[in-house]
Design a protein that fits this description.
- The complex is a heterodimer of chains A (145) and B (626).
- Chain A contains seven helices and five strands.
- Chain A is α+β, with helices and mostly antiparallel strands.
- Chain A has one domain: 2-Layer Sandwich (Nonspecific Lipid-transfer Protein, Chain A), CATH 3.30.1050.
- A five-stranded mixed beta sheet of chain A has the order 3-2-1-4-5.
- In chain A, strand 1 and strand 2 form a beta hairpin.
- In chain A, helix 1 packs across helix 7.
- The model of chain A has no long low-confidence stretch (mean pLDDT 92).
- Chain B has three domains: 203 residues, Aldehyde Ferredoxin Oxidoreductase,  A, domain 1 (4-Layer Sandwich); 179 residues, Aldehyde Ferredoxin Oxidoreductase Protein, subunit A, domain 2; 171 residues, Aldehyde Ferredoxin Oxidoreductase Protein, subunit A, domain 3.
- In chain B, a hairpin with a 6-residue loop joins strand 14 and strand 15.
- The longest helix of chain B is centred in the last third of the chain and has 21 residues.
- Chain B starts with 6 loop residues before the first strand and ends with a helix.
- The mean pLDDT of chain B is 97.
- Chain B is globular.
- In chain B, the strands form four sheets. In chain B, strands 2-1-6-3-4-5 form a six-stranded mixed beta sheet, sandwiched between helices. A six-stranded mixed beta sheet of chain B has the order 8-7-12-9-10-11. In chain B, strands 13-14-15 form a three-stranded antiparallel beta sheet.
- The chains are: A alpha+beta (145), B alpha+beta (626).
- Chains A and B meet through helix 4, helix 5 and helix 6 of A and helix 8 and helix 9 of B.
């Protein structure tokens, strides 16, 4: 059993965070330039989320299995969670197939600098939205402190 | 026996003697090839008089291919060079791709041993059996591109097949301490001043043309393996990224993990990274794909800057390390200027890592008032000043004014500049560290510390394995998970990366980029199918171990001691923020564990017993006397 006991909780946490990123211009504007449609396939628990950067706004669609994605990323929910803390060695995860990526991966890699600010946002987002139990940052300090 | 060409050339530039010695197959089995041959031959040549200057004629130079070089397989075009380094004073070597190694083998030679010093500028002409030392005065003073083009044109009627040129530029001739040797204008043996040694020997170039071919002992098995590897390569993310963007693909990954040193290792986070990343390179520089002999990956790229102050004609695009040293290290956001600096380094023949890192060091000296515009002849060496960075690169390449001081490398420049200049150094054993930060991956710190040639990410497979691009499922130490930001178990990891790495990228000689998807089973099978030997994993690990001790022993013989295994203060300074915040390698712990695993004494020298156990009796006797 991973960190997230149910798919509903995973969706609540991760989709909420993706929507926060979609509303954060410093991240969303750069992602939109890619025009990519990425489907994340999470396991343990299972969840599918499409992040669509092909339009004017970054669209986050859970349970979308119909849209033809340009990139498919598959991984466990725990790896995904750790990734947003900046705690996953991405090269290693991809090499060892802890993350499996299909599609034009070099285009996805080019998005990494754009999403870098999200690493600092994720623990703050968890704390601010009542998901503190999922904050695995050891030295997390609330912004108000 | 397959794979090998079957002869080694011995050329004495002092006497003009040229000797072709057959390659003994027992010797080949014991040493595999590459620096397995090179280090042993080098030791045999110097063991009776090991005390000499790197730029004296007593310093031999070895150039060796591996048993796979010249075959049409991804990632095996590599060849190696080795000698005492004029930059560090210790053992130096470099590993290079391109076409020269293949052509040398087609001419019938597995390697060349060069001794002595020519009376006047010379080049070596090789056309199958015909080997001559020829006058190179016509080419002396010419840059790498001119020399390559003119030699190729002048000699094309003398050989059945087109030849390949490997040469030095004006930097090597002028004994700039980090001069490189370059094949075909873009394949560079860059680190530790290999080209400087050629300059000291009055050796401008080697031209080789070969009309022969190589045999493979078990072609059917090799074909099957190549078929199997097609899928492995298709599924490899690393290969995908290399095909697309070349080595600069690492910029996008490195910036999120804190791997990229910024502002002379004072920052790990930089909002301007996109200005010099793969996207910017694609948009502003990209002018085509290039590759090495027999390799379909084509990780090399061409660049072109059509106009503006950094205009450059189509030529090699900067690699990751070059972008790193001339870009983030200097806070330089101008990718065209980085391409221009790279072009200058390639034409004059200097190592871009040492050059860029030395300029970053000089900028910090300037910004802190240790040097002024009077010293730099009016160049404002400030952070992010692209024009100044390019101008200083040219001054170094020409050994002109303040550039002449920096042409000694940053460690020697710091001694001349004085005050607290050494605080800004990023060198280990006098070699500037590459663009991978050990504060994010502590094992890199140990790898830089104990590398025989100084701070280097390619001296073993540690960067590939700890960094995550390569894993070897057959060897537990090279496939397990390690705690991030920890120094635990890094000594064991480094030992395994050295032993397997010596087989892989020093002896066989696999490419650390194009061969990353290979498991040990793949790699050993390939060598066995080609050579007809029946190496086992244990055997190649033992060979790798011996080669590593030999490199380390040579460095010890040239004076390196435990104090030289330490990281500079700058690399051991905690970052206040960013991905590596608060993390520094625990060098005391890692070195202590490593010394025990490698049976080093307190001076950092391998014990007589361990050297004898691995079959290095001569080295044991030599080191017992120091």
């Amino acid at each position: 059993m991973g960190m997230f006991k149910t798919a509903e909780k995973l969706e609540e946490v991760l989709v909420g965070f993706f929507k926060l990123m979609a509303d954060t211009p410093v991240i969303a504007d750069k992602l939109l330039k890619s025009n990519l449609i990425i489907r994340f396939n999470y396991a343990d628990p299972d969840l599918v989320v499409v992040v669509d950067a092909s339009g004017d706004k970054l669209d986050v669609r859970p349970h979308d299995t119909d849209t033809k994605a340009i990139v498919e990323m598959s991984m466990s929910a725990d790896i995904a969670h750790r990734f947003w803390f900046g705690m996953v060695n991405l090269t290693k995860a991809l090499t060892r197939k802890e993350m499996v990526a299909k599609g034009p991966i070099p285009k996805v890699l080019k998005l990494l600098p754009a999403i870098k600010p999200s690493y600092a946002m994720y623990p703050q987002y968890l704390e601010a939205n009542g998901f503190g139990e999922y904050n695995i940052t050891k030295a997390y300090t609330p912004p108000s402190a | 026996m397959g794979g090998y060409a079957g002869q080694i050339l011995y050329i004495d530039l002092s006497t003009g003697s040229i000797e072709k010695k057959p390659l003994d197959m027992d010797y080949a089995r014991k040493h595999i090839g590459g620096l397995g041959f090179g280090t042993q031959i080098y030791l045999d040549l110097i063991k009776n008089h090991p005390d000499f200057d790197a730029l004296s004629e007593a310093n031999p130079f070895v150039l060796m291919t591996g048993p796979l070089t010249g075959l049409k397989i991804n990632g095996v075009a590599r060849w190696t060079v080795g000698t005492k380094s004029p930059l560090t004073g210790f053992w130096g070597d470099a590993n290079v791709g391109g076409y020269f190694g293949a052509r040398l083998k087609f001419a019938g030679y597995d390697g060349i041993v060069i001794t002595g010093k020519a009376e006047k500028p010379s080049y070596i002409f090789i056309n199958d059996d015909d080997v001559e030392i020829r006058d190179a005065q016509k080419y002396w003073g010419k840059d790498i591109y001119e020399t390559t083009d003119e030699l190729s044109a002048d000699l094309k009627t003398e050989s059945k097949k087109p030849g390949q040129v490997v040469c030095i530029g004006p930097a090597g001739e002028q004994l700039i301490k980090f001069a490189s040797i370059i094949n075909n204008k873009r394949h560079v043996a860059g680190r530790t001043g290999m080209g400087t040694v050629w300059g000291s020997k009055n050796l401008k170039a080697i031209y080789v043309s070969g009309s022969g071919s190589l045999e493979v002992s078990n072609p059917d098995k090799l074909k099957e393996l190549k078929e199997e590897l097609k899928t492995v390569y298709e599924e490899s993310i690393v290969i995908d990224a290399l095909r697309s963007s070349g080595t600069p693909a690492h910029i996008d990954v490195g910036i999120i993990s804190g791997d990229i040193p910024i502002k002379n290792w004072q920052m790990t986070d930089w909002d301007d990274i996109d200005e010099i990343g793969p996207g910017a390179i694609e948009e502003k520089l990209f002018a085509g794909h290039k590759t090495c002999y027999g390799c379909s990956i084509a990780c090399k790229k061409d660049a072109e800057v059509k106009d503006g102050p950094y205009k450059m004609e189509k030529g090699p695009s900067p690699e990751y390390e070059t972008v790193g040293t001339f870009g983030p290290m200097c806070l330089n956001t101008n990718i065209e200027s980085i391409a221009k600096a790279n072009d200058i380094c390639n034409r004059y023949g200097i190592d871009t890592i040492t050059c860029g890192a030395t300029i970053a060091f000089a900028i910090e000296c300037f910004e802190n008032g240790l040097i002024t515009e009077t010293d730099t002849e009016g160049i404002k060496l400030t952070w992010g000043n692209a024009e100044a960075i390019v101008k200083m690169t040219e001054k170094i390449a020409k050994k002109e004014g303040f550039g002449a001081l920096l042409a000694e490398g940053s460690a020697k420049a710091a001694l001349k500049i004085g005050k607290n200049a050494s605080d800004f150094l990023t060198t280990v054993k006098g070699l500037e560290a590459p663009m991978h930060d050990p504060r994010g991956a502590h094992g890199y710190g140990l790898a830089y510390g104990i590398s025989p040639r100084g701070a280097c990410h390619e001296a073993s497979l540690n960067f590939n394995v700890e960094g995550g691009a390569q894993y070897i499922p057959e060897i537990e130490t090279l496939s397990k998970d390690y705690e991030e930001f920890s120094s635990d178990e890094r000594a064991q990891l480094n030992v395994a990366c050295q032993d397997y790495g010596m087989f892989f990228s020093s002896c066989a000689v696999f490419c650390n980029l194009g061969s990353t998807p290979l498991t040990a089973t793949h790699a050993i099978s390939m060598v066995n199918y080609v050579t007809g030997f029946d190496y086992t994993l244990d055997e190649i690990i033992n060979i790798g171990k011996r080669v590593w001790y030999l490199k380390r022993g040579l460095t010890n013989l040239f004076g390196a001691r435990a104090k030289d295994d330490r990281l500079p203060k700058r690399l051991m300074t905690e970052m206040d923020d960013g991905p590596t915040e608060g993390s520094v390698p625990d060098m005391d712990k890692m070195l202590s564990e490593f010394y025990e695993l490698r049976s080093f004494n307190e001076n950092g020298i391998p014990t007589k017993k361990v050297l004898e156990d691995v079959g290095l009796q001569d080295l044991a006797a030599l080191l017992n006397n120091v």
